[in-house]
Amino acid sequence: MSLSLAVRSLSLTGRDVLRVEWKNTYGQTQETHLSLDQRLGNREGSFLIGGVRFSHSARDISLVGDVLHATLSNSRGAL
């Protein structure tokens, strides 16, 4: 089963926690919470996969469908 078929819903809790509701191979609904601050950073105004604490330099964080949006600052503090 592909991930896109297994995921039933995605939502953002607070500024940095992704809540995923999905069905396992037995058809049972599962729920997982992932801290995006432990997986995403900010490099000069762009998301950095494998970085940390993106939300510390972000504003207007939102999840639209399955896409994370945010306004991220650069090293000069500009948004």
From TrEMBL:
Origin: domain of life? Eukaryota
Q: Which Pfam families match?
A: CVNH (PF08881)
Residue span(s) of domain Cyanovirin-N: 11-77
Q: Which Gene3D superfamilies match?
A: Cyanovirin-N
Name of the protein described by the UniProt record: Cyanovirin-N domain-containing protein
UniProt organism field: Stachybotrys elegans
**From which lineage does this chain's organism come?**
Eukaryota, Fungi, Dikarya, Ascomycota, Pezizomycotina
